[in-house]
Amino acid sequence: MKLIDARRDHYRRLAHEQGYRSRSAYKLKELNKAYRIFGPGHYVLDLGCAPGGWTQVAVQIVGNQGKVMGIDATYVEDIAGAYLIKQNIEDEKVEEILSYFERKVSAVICDISSNITGNWSVDHAKQISQNYACTKIMDQVLTFKGNALFKVFDGEFSNEFRDFLKKKFAKVRVTKPKASRKPSSELYYVCLGYVA
Ligand SMILES: C[S@@+](CC[C@H](N)C(=O)[O-])C[C@H]1O[C@@H](n2cnc3c(N)ncnc32)[C@H](O)[C@@H]1O
C-alpha cells in the first residue's frame, strides 16, 4: 500500500472510531491547532457543512458558551449543539444567520465544493466561484478582526482569490494539512484579522 493510501485509511479509521462524519474533521482540527482560527466561546459559521465533520469539531472547540451554525444545500443529520439549515449559499441570504447568532460571528469556515466532474479546469473554476459566494455571506456576518478558512481547489484562479482575501484580512496563510491527501490539489487559505 502506498503511504498516501495508508494515511487516508488512517484518517478514515480514526473518523469512524471517534465518531466524526468525515475525514475532513482532522484537517480542521490540525489547522485550528496551528492557527487558532476560533476557540472556546466563539461563534462559528460553517458553509458547505455536510455531512458535518467540521461542524462536529467546531461544536467541541467552542463549547457551551459558543455557537455553531452549519449551512449546506443538502440535508445534514442533526448535530447536538449546532444549528443546521439547508440553503444554497449562492442565494447569499443572511437573515437566519444573523437572527441565530444575534451578533456578528468570530469565524467563517468554508469547505465548499460540488461533486467533481473530473475536468479539473471546470471543477476548479466552479469551486472558486463558490468561494466568492461564501465571501459575500462572510462580508455581512464576520466581525471586525474575525477569522476565516477556505478550502481552495488549486488552479489558475487561486492566486486571484488569495489576493482578493489579502485585501480583507491582515494575514492570509496558504497551507495544506497532513490530513489532506498529497495528490489532491486542495489548499487551505487561513485568513486572520478581518479588516474590511
Ligand atoms: C467537502 S463537503 C464538506 C465536508 C464537511 N466540511 C465535513 O467535514 O463534513 C462540501 C459540501 O459543500 C456543499 N455545497 C456545494 N455547493 C453548495 C452551495 N451552493 N450551497 C450550499 N452548500 C454547497 C456540498 O453539498 C457538500 O456537502
How would you summarize this macromolecular structure in one to three sentences?
This protein is α/β, with parallel strands linked by helices and 196 residues long.
Q: How does this structure look, described?
A:
By secondary structure, this protein is of the alpha/beta class. It has a single domain, classed as Vaccinia Virus protein VP39 (Rossmann fold, 3-Layer(aba) Sandwich). Helices cover 39% and strands 26% of the residues. The protein is built from six helices and seven strands. It has a seven-stranded mixed sheet, sandwiched between helices. Strand 1, helix 3 and strand 2 form a beta-alpha-beta unit. Helix 2 packs parallel to helix 3. The chain is globular, with a radius of gyration of 16 Å. The protein starts with a helix and ends with a strand. The model has no long low-confidence stretch (mean pLDDT 94). The site of S-adenosylmethionine (SAM) has 22 residues, from helix 2 and helix 3. S-adenosylmethionine (SAM) binds next to helix 2 and helix 3.
Key words describing this protein structure:
alpha/beta, Rossmann fold, 196 residues, seven-stranded mixed beta sheet, binds S-adenosylmethionine
The amount of beta strand, in percent, is: 25-35%
The CATH first-level class comes to Alpha Beta
* Rg over C-alpha atoms, rounded to the nearest angstrom: 16 Å
Task: Give the number of DSSP strands.
Answer: 7
Q: And the CATH topology?
A: Rossmann fold
CATH superfamily: Vaccinia Virus protein VP39
The overall number of domains is 1
Uncertain segments:
none
Number of helices: 6
Strand count, sense and closure of the main sheet? 7 strands, mixed
